[in-house]
Amino acid sequence: MVHPIDASVGAQVRALRRQRGMTQTELGTVLGLTFQQVQKYERGTNRISASKLALLAEALKVPVGLFFEGVDGGDVACEGAEDMQRLVAAFEQMPSSVQGDFLRMIQSIGSADY
Fold first, then answer.
1. Does residue 46 share a domain with residue 3?
2. Looking at CB atoms within 10 Å, which of 2, 28, 80, 110 has the fewest?
3. What CA–CA distance (Å, rounded) separates 48 from 21?
């Protein structure tokens, strides 16, 4: 069973990697890992060691603490983490011509006043 903190950290890794336009293979090469190992990190099925977290932070050009955003005293505020993973998977399956429109729609909804 995946621990919520591992899932949260993995989701952060995935989001940051995608924001930088890196593939799992490219990130794996930088870290000395296979893309399958990166996949397992991103899913939270494999825990990320402290040394790998430091290398990840360096590769993604972020502070190490960013991976723990949403973690509060050992409790993870990730009630939507599974939904987020499904959303990312669906996004990746969309044609690239639709992805831009989808992102603009989500950003519009996110910035709306409710």
1. yes
2. 110
3. 21
